From TrEMBL:
GO terms for biological process: biogenic amine metabolic process; glutamine biosynthetic process. InterPro entries: Gln_synt_N_sf (IPR036651), Gln_synth/guanido_kin_cat_dom (IPR014746), Gln_synth_cat_dom (IPR008146). This is Glutamine synthetase. Keywords: ATP-binding, Ligase, Nucleotide-binding.
Amino acid sequence: MQIGAKAARLPVSCPDIAAENPSARASKEAARPVSVLLLGKQKYQALETSILDLWKLGSNPRAAFSILYTANTGLTSLFDSFPPPPFLVIFMTICQLPPSVALITRRSLLIPATTMGSQITASSLPQLLEHDTCVKLAGIDVDGILRGKLVSKKKFLSIAEAGFGFCSVIFGWDMHDQTYLKELKVSNAENGYRDILAIPDLSTFRRVPWEDNVPFFLVNFFDPETKKPIAPCSRGLLKTQLDKVHAKGYGAMAGAEYEFYTFRNPNSDSASPAGFLLQNPPHQLPSLTEGMFGYSLNRPVHNKDWYYDVYNTCARFSCDIEGWHTESGPGVYEAALEFGEVADMADRASLFKYVVKSVGINHGITPCFMAKPKQGLPGNSGHMHISIVDGDGKNLLARDTTDPEAKWNDIAALSDLGRHFLAGLLEGLPDIMPMLAPTVNSYKRLVENFWAPVTVSWGLEHRAASIRLISPPTSKPGATRFEVRTPGADSNPHFVLAAILGCGWRGVEKKLEIPCPPLALGQDTGGAGDVGERLAKSLKEATARFMRKDSIAREIFGDDFVDHFGGTRENEVRLFDEAVTDWYVLQRLHIEPAHHVPLLTSSF
């Protein structure tokens, strides 16, 4: 069998094949398939020879391996039976390929960060980066935005363990690089916006496929004097909450779903939609598609290259998409990210937004993750699923046998631990709202009649409640979980998961009881039968409750974090309160005879 004949059967996530030059394709037509009839070392030697042969003929490394894997089903037993030798580990690291055929099958020849990254140590970095000249590093600010830089390989190797100085101003200004009106403890003019300590997390290694596969690592931020995580470091905050669960020998799993609007970059002299909007009203920014049509199979075809580029690039960047479809609204898409360990899930959720924005640049498409981009249309949610597992991976939210005496049928299959966790979520929800809905715009989404939760509420398979319980009989016991539906797509996933885990685990430790009955099916949140407490209607209201001296947020996260993050939210509220928006002008600008215009303009 000729390799070229099989190449057409490659999975869609290997688009590199299509970009190969004709001479390379012709050479592969005559190439022989690798033999996998030998054992152990001989098999890998044959594989190494074939990979190098194809590489020399002009194939890029991913394409070379993809062709060989597709043409030889015997590689399944090879990867299952023998650990790959160093050459193949390095090769697969370069190409973002997994050392397990189970992962190859499931991820279409693409490696997750946790598989290779967990094996990386400071001593292995020189070999890993042998053919690189630079490394990209990034940290995450309180708004969930990646802030980073490119450094030389020499510099990176010198700071990989001890860390390096990173300007603290990223925690002293907002997402538009405007310093906070009220200066905060971590970074301010008085301390000179001092450097904080940034230490690369080697387990987050991946390569940036749209930037020539430059190596990439996330960093954690620490106080340079105490060497403790700084309060607003979102990765550190989540780790602190996760450590409480780990202390009991348990783990936490999570999955994220993000909705976002897409806009076509306008034909103008501006370099981006941001420039366009300086001269034009937002409604003139064209949507990628018009009208409402969730789960459409046809709409993605209109922008097929972008649609598949997002899916494939997410996989290559180790933030795999599990489900990818249109949502109801003009240019609206939703991605469900692959379920995984909580800390890794939070990283992948942050990186997903980075991928979508980066891929869009090459296609003239701008994504929008704000909670409510358009009045009268659905908003962008950022739902989070969470479950607790033991050391063997058993789901601890599931009950071994159905409880015939459960207070409500909805929790008949939910374990005692799960009930306490749910109670903690419900009790803490009003106090941690800024972590789930962090912007003024967030609360435009949280209104009645848009499938958005507005009260402290829950229910079995209830998509209008704040917390949707997913458990038997509608799911398998192992899939028992909570879907927290309050967060918007504008939230920082590390803060969201820290809030969920912190509140839920507080309920477990205090053995809290569920404070309100479930919503009945067909009963809407905020309706007459919903007895749950109304959640904050504005960021100002939510922040005031978050920052109260007796707030549950202070109990869980401490004063330093609440004061800092709350201060950043107060800053947003103040900026909004002082802004004169188009709405006011449109409401108050009356068309009058010309001699009245000066009086009107002076009274805006």
